[in-house]
Description:
Elements: E1 2-5, E2 12-15, E3 23-25, E4 28-30, E5 37-42, E6 47-53, H1 57-72, H2 81-97, H3 99-110, H4 114-134, E7 142-143, E8 149-157, E9 160-164, H5 170-184, E10 187-191, H6 198-210, E11 217-219, H7 224-232, E12 239-243, H8 246-258, E13 263-267, E14 273-276, H9 282-294, E15 306-310, H10 314-325, H11 346-362, E16 365-368, E17 384-387, H12 394-397, E18 404-410, H13 413-421, E19 428-432, H14 436-445, E20 450-453, E21 472-473, H15 478-484, E22 486-494
Parallel strand pairs: 9-10, 9-12, 10-11, 12-13, 14-15, 14-19, 15-18, 17-18, 19-20
Antiparallel strand pairs: 1-2, 3-4, 5-6, 7-8, 8-22, 13-21, 16-17
Helix pairs in contact: 1-7, 2-4, 2-5, 2-6, 3-4, 3-6, 4-5, 5-15, 9-10
Ligand TXE binds near residues 245 and 351.
Amino acid sequence: MTSHSNGNSDSFVKMPTIKFTKLFINGKFVDSISGKTFETIDPRTEEAITRVAEGDKEDIDLAVKAAREAFDNGPWPRLSGFDRGRIMMKFADLIDEHAEELAALDTIDAGKLFGEGKAGIPHSANMLRYYAGAADKIHGEVLKMSREFHAYTLREPIGVVGHIIPWNVPTTMFLGKVSPALAAGCTMVVKPAEQTPLSALYYAHLSKLAGIPDGVLNVVTGFGPTAGAAISSHMDIDAVSFTGSTEVGREVMQAAAKSNLKTLSLELGGKSPLIIFDDADLDKAAELALLGILHNKGEICVASSRVLVQEGIYDEFVKKLLEKKKSWTVGDPFDPKVRQGPQIDKKQFDKILSYIEHGKREGATLLTGGKPSGHNKGYYIEPTFFTDVKEDMLIAKDEIFGPVMSLMKFKTIDEAIKKANNTTYGLAAGVMTKDLNVANTVSRSIRAGIIWINCYFAFDRDVPFGGYKMSGFGRDFGLDALYKYLQVKSVVTPIYNSPW
Ligand code: TXE
């Protein structure tokens, strides 16, 4: 890495050297068949970092061919789970060794906080270790059937997997999808988001160094409607794991249905409620509400974008929230003092600002923020909080995917539950109260894939994560994610003259 100032602020940035910009197919970095490339933009400066190979349908075909060959005839699915696990452990160690460089790539490509990435990437590498430990514990069952027959089940890798991933947390997404599929013995094609191709290509390089055989893990950079769509409609891909918008999730599902009925898991958007009751620890509640919407600049599917506060503490809570916001700094994500970097790109920046304008027009009260955060360059937006938000306002219904909080008041637990469930989404929810009964009642009543009681963003690799309702189906993380890359085969055999 080379160090220099970015000229945009007084912070000192560590620019990574860009080493990998080509498609990774069958263990080699190659140009796209068309020879086309596209720019990847630094959201801090709005300038191109580099050009990356633009994969299209023909490149996806090549990558799938390599993955199919590696699955049908290669060693990876045939290795013992233990040996697959050893290679995955090596991959994880290499990631640890390169954490700083990888974190810097996610900072320039996605605007992620460098300090958080440096600490978080080894944590994400543990995903590989977690599933490596599970790789030799993939068992079927023995079934007694009847006196004349007995049966057992095998859990077999599902085959060639397509991972279509978004830009908001490039490393977590890459490792979260790839790790369980590798442990299961699958081979795969990953299409990173066009906004964030750089760390994915670096992970591909490290996978090769770790000893993952050629063809097992392919990375094709490119755009959604071309390379992405070629994955969802491919006749030789057995399963797709997609994270992204609900609209594209729907298209992926249609393409899967129209092609080979591949199995799917879809992790889509959210409009998650954080419910704060009168008896909650107010300080902590304000802290979590702030973090819940501003972490990763609100570009996080589980962001607590709807904060429901019980009327008895509402005014005091709002005061605390504003107090805490004072120490929240927006700026260059390499600067260790900064808590919030730039939005991913111009499209997202404009989308967020247009929702803010909508909120004002719809009659919500702008408590703070509401505009770009005054940097000369870069897609920076002020933390924005609205009060007097009504359930039917667009800012209370749509996923904004930015630092925009909608505050609402409630009187009773029933009203809180009703409001919390008044969404087409169902990804996450938080509840803050000292009353265990209230916490448990709310947890059971809310239709969402993860409920946090007196905490928020408490994720770990062993906790399954995914949506209810239009937030999708299927789970990432935990053993549930491993099982989605496995399929069950029942084997039946006769027993002659059994006395039992
Ligand atoms: O998502 P897309 P975008 C939400 C969030 C955000 C909105 C739009 O609200 O503002 O979606 O973001 C690939 N066939 N989330 O436009 O388009 C694409 O190349 C196959 C929530 O970036 O869904 C990328 O790799 N693939 C979300 C991936 O899909 C296609 C995270 C996601 O891009 C495709 C991101 C197609 N036709 C956005 N079109 C979350 N759940 O965390 C695009 N892609």
